[in-house]
Structure to design on (671 residues):
């Protein structure tokens, strides 16, 4: 036998079988690797020398450094409380190495940098440096990291070198902003060096001034001004009476370009961040008495005072208040021809056999309607219900109690509420608000006959202009049978007897045409825009009497017979500051700068200027009792303009009172 041929034949059959099986079953299902959930990579924060992120940064392998910085940025932001630099050895040095490496590379290769097509190495170094500073900026939200970086001398050195980069290059802007934020956090915690010298020697002040004077980037301007304010603030003394350990490293002059640019920012009242930075810079500058006295001689003093006063006025959030003068008025919205709706016999026959509370719901739906602002007494509501179904108690289900039927009103009309209101006399009334009696459709009284001086005809009930005209022609204008021959001829004088009309004619056809002027239209004429939609009533009693007559189906009280209503209520409108509690920080800083300039303008500065140990340092305590002002002071106060905020106004008044203690003022020479 040829075993070789049989082997290959069996092999071919086996492969064909597997190919057919694979084709019938389809491709194997793809296995998807599960995505790690949030917080499953926190183990990268574990301390020790074998920390993966620290080892990746120290290795200087670009791919590893990119991965490590992306992890550190996320962890320092999402798990800030657990991100502690000191627990991972060499991590701080590795993070600071990337910005330092970029600074050295930029110093040698910046001329060949292309802003539109940077080389891969340039892009990678810039990315690593920016992310490293972002990690440090996020980490400083933890107090442990602040203490650690303050004690690291390399941190301030790297920050100073970053600030020396040209801010005009857009690739450096984000790095410089992060460096400024880091310096703002570390600055208040920095102490003098071993020789007792200024710890900010490595900070390039000239570069910061150029950012303020030349930059147009809002974020860069804000942080640069804040850092200069920090460098201008005197350091705290180690002991209560001990002198400061060193003088502030930054002391600008009143006419410096930086000061002039900052003063221009006082006009940006709608930009709170930049305005706050400018006010803090000015307040820190005016803290020094010699600097404040020099500022008084600056030509822009008057303009600065106007800007500070403008900031105070802008921060006063005024609201328009309205105060009515006089007693409240009552109004009625009913038309003269209004009649209450009554159930027809067919509707009553259909509703009466229904079980409660369905019967009450159907009855309310037919008899009442929503009316915001209207009210109906609970007694009238219960009386209407009782008068409707009490006569049918032998043939219909039992009635609901008064409390139950009033409670059901809020179910059928969700806007309605049962409540107790007090009249002007103090009498309590139990009413149902926001509903009213439904009126009959078509307003029949609108077409009521008013012949014979307004008495009309009791038997005639026209419901349209056509029916009213037909009634007048057939009942009041029809000539006797003997006078039919006089139609179209002149007769004796015929007088129109509609209400108080005094029209007289001798032609019956003219009288018929004149009658058309008294017949109202189906649609009421529109009111004048100045005419109020409601009728003003003289008192609550007149309103109750008028509506009571309407509900009984009689003629409403005539506007000519009831007492005249009171004149329209006068309204006093004025603007006042709402009670906001503590004034805003922007207003307090503007007032603080004004107070510093005010005290420095007196010759005896030692006794008039605020002292740290005295109550008048900064903002004084409010006086318990206000002293009586003299006549001249009252006239000056009436002629001036007060600040709306009462607390700030007290501090302004305090400045005026304290000024009376000094008699000599420094002469100002405005060049």
């Amino acid at each position: 036998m040829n075993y070789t041929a049989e082997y290959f034949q069996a092999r071919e059959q086996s492969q064909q079988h597997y190919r057919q099986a694979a084709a019938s079953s389809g491709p194997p299902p793809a296995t998807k690797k599960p995505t790690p959930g949030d917080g499953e990579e926190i183990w990268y924060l574990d301390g020790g020398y074998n920390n993966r992120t620290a080892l990746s940064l120290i290795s200087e392998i670009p791919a590893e450094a990119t991965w490590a910085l992306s992890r550190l940025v996320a962890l320092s932001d999402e798990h800030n409380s657990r991100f502690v630099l000191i627990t991972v050895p060499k991590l701080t040095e590795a993070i600071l190495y990337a910005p330092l490496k970029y600074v050295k590379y930029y110093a040698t290769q910046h001329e060949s940098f292309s802003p539109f097509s940077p080389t891969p190495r340039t892009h990678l170094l810039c990315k690593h440096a920016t992310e490293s500073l972002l990690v440090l900026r996020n980490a400083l939200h933890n107090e442990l990291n602040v203490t650690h970086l303050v004690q690291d001398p390399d941190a301030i050195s790297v920050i100073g070198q970053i600030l020396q980069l040209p801010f005009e290059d857009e690739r450096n802007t984000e790095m410089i902003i992060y460096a400024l934020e880091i310096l703002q956090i570390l600055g208040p915690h920095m102490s003098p060096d071993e020789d007792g010298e200024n710890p900010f020697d490595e900070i390039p002040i000239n570069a910061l001034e150029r950012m303020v004077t030349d930059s147009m980037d809002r974020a860069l301007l804000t942080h640069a001004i804040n850092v200069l304010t920090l460098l201008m603030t005197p350091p705290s003394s180690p002991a209560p009476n001990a002198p400061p350990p060193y003088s502030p490293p930054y002391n600008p002059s009143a006419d410096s370009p930086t000061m002039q640019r900052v003063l221009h920012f006082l006009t940006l009242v709608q930009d709170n961040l930049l305005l706050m930075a400018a006010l803090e810079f000015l307040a820190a500058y005016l803290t020094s008495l010699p600097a404040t006295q020099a500022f008084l001689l600056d030509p822009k003093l008057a303009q600065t005072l106007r800007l500070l006063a403008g900031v105070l006025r802008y921060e006063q959030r005024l609201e328009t208040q309205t105060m009515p003068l006089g007693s409240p008025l009552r109004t009625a919205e009913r038309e003269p021809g209004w009649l209450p709706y009554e159930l027809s016999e067919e509707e009553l026959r259909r509703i009466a056999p229904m079980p409660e509370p369905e019967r009450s719901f159907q009855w309310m739906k037919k008899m009442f309607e929503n009316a915001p602002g209207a009210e109906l007494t609970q007694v009238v509501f219960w009386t209407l219900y009782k008068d409707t179904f009490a006569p049918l108690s032998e043939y219909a289900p039992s009635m609901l109690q008064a409390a139950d039927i009033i409670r059901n009103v809020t179910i059928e009309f969700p806007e309605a509420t049962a409540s107790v209101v007090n009249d002007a006399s103090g009498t309590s009334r139990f009413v149902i608000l926001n509903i009213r009696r439904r009126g009959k459709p078509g307003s029949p009284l609108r077409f009521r006959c008013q012949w014979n001086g307004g008495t009309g005809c009791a038997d005639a009930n026209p419901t349209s202009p056509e029916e009213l005209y037909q009634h007048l022609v057939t009942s009041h204008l029809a000539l006797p049978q003997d006078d039919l021959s006089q139609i179209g001829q002149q007769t004796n004088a015929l007088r129109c007897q509609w209400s108080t009309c005094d029209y007289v004619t001798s032609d019956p056809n003219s009288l018929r045409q004149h009658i058309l002027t008294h017949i109202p239209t189906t649609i009421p004429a529109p009111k004048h825009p100045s005419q109020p939609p409601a009728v003003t009533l003289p008192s609550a009693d007149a309103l109750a009497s008028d509506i009571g007559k309407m509900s009984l189906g009689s003629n409403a009280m005539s506007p000519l017979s009831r007492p005249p209503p009171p004149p329209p209520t006068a309204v006093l409108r004025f603007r006042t500051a709402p009670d906001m509690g503590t004034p805003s920080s922007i207003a307090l800083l503007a007032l603080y700068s004004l107070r510093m300039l005010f005290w420095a303008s007196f010759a005896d500065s030692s006794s008039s200027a605020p002292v740290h140990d005295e109550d008048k340092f900064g903002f004084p305590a409010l006086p318990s009792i206000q002293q009586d002002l003299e006549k001249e002071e009252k006239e000056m106060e009436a002629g001036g303009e007060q600040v709306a905020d009462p607390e700030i106004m007290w501090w302004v008044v305090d400045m005026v009172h304290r000024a009376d203690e000094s008699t000599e003022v420094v002469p100002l020479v405005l060049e």
